[in-house]
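Run log, item B.
One chain of 142 residues. Sequence copied directly from the ordering sheet:
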Amino acid sequence: MISYEYSTDFKLSSEEGYTSWIKAVVELYNKEIGELTYRYMSDSELLEFNIQYLNHDTYTDIISFDYSVGDIVSGDILISVDRVRENSVEFGSPFHVELLRVMSHGVLHYLGFKDKTVKESRIMREQEDIAIKLYNEFHVEQ
């Protein structure tokens, strides 16, 4: 089951559409969805989690807590809507595309993809691009 929580004025336009898309991304890797929660929050809220749980006093766009077991993908994905907006401006990309990138990024970590090295980051970006292309097949309203 995929659920969505919001602590800002941001809301997804179609939770059902995003759920279908994320399930399809996970199924590409022959895995199943367990309990997956997306939490959309402000920069300051996510910073508190970053300090408390990761001992990092920096802003970030995403923090993911992986509870996956075997082929069952589960976890909490915390997303800073503020940071996604800033990234979209910085990278000259539409907000919606940056949101898709971050949403898929968390799940891709649960699927075993890393991003600590240059090579891992390149592979992660390629996988994010595949997920974004898959999104277009679902015609989720933006």
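Observations after the first pass:
- The chain has a mean pLDDT of 94.
- The chain is about 50% helix and 20% strand.
Flagged for discussion on Thursday.
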